[in-house]
């Protein structure tokens, strides 16, 4: 949900022209008519509705939208009231503030359409950036402990004697009060880390990851060696096989990674397993999928090992 919110900020504003310019042009050409409704809740500057970013669960888009639909009415009133204090709100926000179910479901549909247009086509590249950042943070913890990792997370973050200070639009001390701190890497967070305004919500720091220049250029996919694999297997099945060459995963993990349903993952893993491209093993209550040598060779574009048959 954070990527939805922060990408809206970038799309509406002028920031990040070099890194995000091609993406903005591509997305603006295919946005659905209802998206301006989202801009009322997430302006490019100032406060955005906190209920758009429920507490991170790691369960992906579906869980985030379910949490949004369950937002208590007092929270809806509070957040829309804060928006109204800064700018003239859209007329529809009154019904949203009252928790009108039709309005909430309309918002749910618009968010889904926006994700399909603005994020889904680029999600494999977003996930690659997350994976690189995660590896970087793991190494930082190994080298300097949690304090060293937090100190090196971003120049705007300072960790001293158990107090985390964020210097961005305004200096802010984040008091954990015995609570844990959630660190969320973000592809569409630009330059400075951000956090929630509501101190009653779980502490979250959203920070920007590094980007490859040209990541959204129209020819970026043509440089991807998996393009031919997608032509052969289809996009979802090819991306699933590629994900399995990077360490494998359970059905639920793969569904969250690829932003598809678990049923879709099960269908595609069955087909890949029948072709000898993956294997599936049970680990306790879950099943774990991984690529076979043949599947890895197919993803890498290497020639397979010919089978030896008795003559």
Q: What does the main sheet amount to? A: 3 strands, antiparallel
Order of helices and strands: HHHHHHHHEEEEEHHEHHEEH
Number of domains: 3
Q: How would you name the oligomeric state of the polypeptide chains in this document?
A: single chain
pLDDT < 50 stretches: 303-311
What is the number of beta strands? 8
* Morphology: globular
Strand order of the largest sheet: 1-2-3
Continuous helix count:
13
User: How far apart, in Å, are the first and last alpha carbons?
Assistant: 58 Å
Structural class: mainly alpha
Residue-averaged pLDDT, rounded?
A: 80
Radius of gyration of CA atoms, rounded to a whole number: 22 Å
Strand percentage, roughly?
Answer: 5-15%
Give helix % range. 40-55%
Which secondary structure elements does this structure contain, and how are they paired or packed?
Elements: H1 2-12, H2 17-28, H3 36-41, H4 61-69, H5 73-86, H6 93-97, H7 101-118, H8 123-151, E1 157-160, E2 163-166, E3 172-174, E4 182-186, E5 204-208, H9 227-233, H10 235-244, E6 249-250, H11 251-258, H12 262-274, E7 278-283, E8 286-291, H13 293-300
Parallel strand pairs: 4-5
Antiparallel strand pairs: 1-2, 2-3, 6-8, 7-8
Helix pairs in contact: 9-10, 10-12, 11-12
InterPro entries: ArsR-like_HTH, HTH_ArsR_DNA-bd_dom, Metal_resp_trans_reg, WH-like_DNA-bd_sf, WH_DNA-bd_sf
Keywords: DNA-binding, Transcription, Transcription regulation
GO molecular function: DNA binding; DNA-binding transcription factor activity
